Amino acid sequence: MNYFLCITTEENWNVIKEKKIWGVSERYKNIISKVALGDYLIIYEMGKPKTKTSEAKPQYVRAVYEVVSEIKEDTKKIFEPHMNNTSEVYPLRVKLKEVKTFEKPVIFKKLVPEMEFIKNKKVWAGSLRRAMVQLGEGDYKKIIGN
Fold first, then answer.
1. Domain 3-144 sits in which CATH superfamily?
2. What are phi and psi of 50, to 5 degrees?
3. Where is the EVE domain (predicted)?
4. Per-residue pLDDT for the chain (146 aa), expressed as one digit of tens each?
5. So what's the pLDDT on residue 42?
6. Helix, strand, or coil here: 119?
7. Tell me, what's the pLDDT at 47?
8. 29-42 burial: b if 16+ Cβ within 10 Å, else e
9. Is the dihedral of CA 69, 75, 77, 79 positive or negative?
10. d(CA 95, CA 50)
C-alpha cells in the first residue's frame, strides 16, 4: 500500500469532496502512475495569503481517500484551472472512496517538524510545490493521527 499527499486549492478541494475524483496534469504522469487500487490519498489544501479583502488561510489537511479505480484520462472540465494555465483540466484521474474527512481540518504547519519527507523544516513549503508527494507510512500515520 502507498500513501500520497495531494496538494490542491480550496476550490478543487470542494470538487474532490463532491465528485470523489482526484486529477493531475500530464506534467505529473510519473507520480500518479505510482498510484494503485487501495492506495491512500491525503488531501492537502494550500493556504492563502492575506489580501485587502480577505484574511490569510493556513494550509490544511482535509481528508483521506482510498483509490478505487485505475488511472483514466478524461478531459471534461470539472476542476478549477491553475491561474498560470487557464486551459488545464487535470486529465489524469482516479476515483476515490472517502476514508476520513476531518471535521476540524488539521493545520499542516503544526505537523512539519515531524514530517520525514520534509527535509528543510525552515522552508517547508518548497516540499509541496507539486501536485502529489509520496509519503512513508510513518508520515501518513502522523498526519491521520490528529
1. ph1033 like domains (3.10.590.10)
2. -65, 140
3. 2-144
4. 999 999 999 999 999 999 999 999 999 999 999 999 999 999 999 988 777 887 878 899 999 999 999 999 999 999 999 878 888 999 999 999 999 999 999 999 999 999 999 999 888 988 888 899 999 999 999 999 85
5. 98
6. coil
7. 84
8. eebbeebeeebbbb
9. positive
10. 33
| DSSP string of 33-79, one letter each residue | TT--TT-EEEEEE--B---SSS--B--EEEEEEEE-S--EE-----S
Residues recorded for the chain: 146
Nearest to 27 by CA among 82, 100, 102: 82
Q: Where are the domains of the chain?
A: 3-144
CB count within 10 Å of CB 123 equals 9
